[in-house]
Amino acid sequence: MSQYDVVIIGSGPGGYVAAIRCVQLGMKTAIIEKYSVLGGTCLNVGCIPSKALLDSSHHYQDAIKHFQEHGIEIPGDVKVNIKKMIDRKKSVVEQTTAGIDFLMKKNKITVFTGKGSFKDATHIVIEKQDGKTEEIEAKNTIIATGSKPATLPFIKIDKKRVITSTEALSLNEIPKHLLVIGGGVIGLELGQVYLRLGAQVSVIEYMDRIIPGMDAAQSKELAKALKKQGMKFYTSHKVSAVASKGKEVTVTATDKKGKEVTFTGDYCLVSVGRRPYTDGLKAENAGIKINERGQVEVNQYLQTNIPNIYAIGDVIKGAMLAHKASEEGVFVAETLAGQKPHINYNLIPGVVYTWPEVASVGKTEEVLKAENANYKAGQFPMRALGRARASGDIDGFVKILSDANTDEVLGVHMVGARVADLIAEAVTAMEFRASAEDIARMSHAHPTYAEAVKEAALAASGLGAIHV
Q1: What is the pTM of this model?
Q2: Which of 149, 171, 214, 448 is the most exposed place for a label (fewest CB within 10 A)?
Q3: Is-same-fold flag (3-148+275-343; 162-272)?
């Protein structure tokens, strides 16, 4: 029987990063993946393919709506080849997963293909695709099995007309009317892909606003921008039924006044979140505690109630983000090596990759108000930037929240072009506990979108923004 210092179940951004760090720290490591390709949800049916389609559809939208104003004239009609677009997406995924294969070989990590389950706390059974099984021994195990799309009890996902994000990434036609249940990150990103390609898109959201977990100002600004692009929103609507017949899908909901309304489309994307995936793990054989939400329970060291078993990523509490899982993977590896790592969960940024993009780190204004915190806010509009006007990306703003007494930055919330990259400046500043004035006094290159951060910091610190 093969023996390992660490065995990781799941090869997503949490699992494969943990495996690499374990090997770097001198541990004999194996990784188990039930699918034939590595990378988990993020690389195969999540972050990477969705960004590929977002970029492709963005190019198309620019060609039909914005090229002419830049003096670029294209003779004839610009057409979408959805098959070629999906093929390109597949190619991007294949290149990325091949990169993970390379990293496993380079780091001499043993990869087992099959479904891993606990026989007991130190033995794992791998059920291979041909039905054969293999047993290995693990001194330590890291559960990194991720999550799956969630649904509502009364919705039957047929994967044809009533679909999840997985199927939405591989449609063979552009929907005429895409109904999206859920106004969170996944629904808005995939909704915008098909909106750009010509679909009518209607978003039905239970809460009173889209992206409800982010700052309310971001929600309002993004909704305004997407409405301008043609997306329709029905907030404060509680879905009660979804029926599919032939090529037609009907969604029944109750609005905030208690009135029943129906929506009809040819596809319905159910994007009501994700659920931890522990199916078939047989955690009970090892005595691992799983809570009522299906999450593996862990302590501050990401250790389960069984001392040699840890869990990371979507399968435990917290935001379901690839970069959170990666940080946790490194954290556990370094903990096993006897180091004292640290994760500041308040400084894990969140991003929505629509256009304009939305990015956030730290506390929202709503949280600070609920805490009765004494804070200051400074906001600067993107449209006031020369760079934004030059590119035509004038939607959005940067908002900085700082402590009224110490001026320490407590939260940074952005909407605009390339804010997914820009948020790293805020994370860096907050990691070093910078004040708003610290950011305001730093030189920012001109002309850039980053100047909006400086200007918002000037406003928050009380020095006063210059270009408004």
Answers
A1: 0.96
A2: 448
A3: yes
